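Subject: Sanity check before I submit

Could someone independently write out the structure tokens for this chain? I want to compare against mine line by line before I put it in a report. The sequence has 266 residues.
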Amino acid sequence: MKCANILTDLGHEVFLTYTASFSFDLTEVRAKRVYSPHLRPDEVPDADAVMCSTWYMARRVADLPASKGAKFAYLQDFENWSGTSEDILSCWRLPVHLVAVANYLRDAAAQHTSKRAAVLPYGIDFERFHPEGKTPPSPQRLVLGGLYNSMARKRFDDLVAVALGLREQGVPVELRLFGAEPGPVLPLPAVYLRQPKPEDLRAMMSACHVWLAMSEQEGLHIPPMEAMACGAVPVVTEIGGMRDYCLDGRTGFQVPVGGVAEAVAR
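---
Independent answer below. Compare away.
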């Protein structure tokens, strides 16, 4: 939606086509909205280009007539939690151009298809995400931040284990979290923001000294990038697109998946 807004502001005519009920209340959408329940040709405006944002929609985009424009699929992760690996790769092999959010997806496309994907990572809105009232860490206070998501691949329990490990070493950790779900039950005190407003998320991230992401699978994973823009140091697993922006020992620190002890040591 951000890309649609930017292109609209640049003077392009942009249609945001959606196939299911969707809430646009969380952001201002300046592109034209088109409800297309089946993505049939008569429901989709003629255009110079058409892009889908999920692997399974590539099949419908590929079936559209040439009048709908050049066809693109935006690869945001290897989304094998919503389909089999072969189903995903078969959609990548369809007659659509591939655009990848991270280098590892470009490499996967090159390995499994005959295509070279262009890499187009997410951008950060620096008007929304910047340091605000930043204070340095001290022997009396270390603020640890992260995203709460109950999906198993996010390995949220590892994040909690890192916080507990630091507390066991006498580090005065304060844990701050945000997410879309109801707050988790935790074995330590924490501040949790559910679906925060942008200004509240900025304030929360600005309060964090370290941002933890312990997932076993991610696309680009934008929360660590936003936290970095707010002045937090990322400690992330060495997976997916996080390796593109969190350079170990330079812009943050990388740890192996499941590396709770390594994260505590960082």
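---
OP: Matches mine. For the report I'm noting this point. The longest strand covers residues 173-179.
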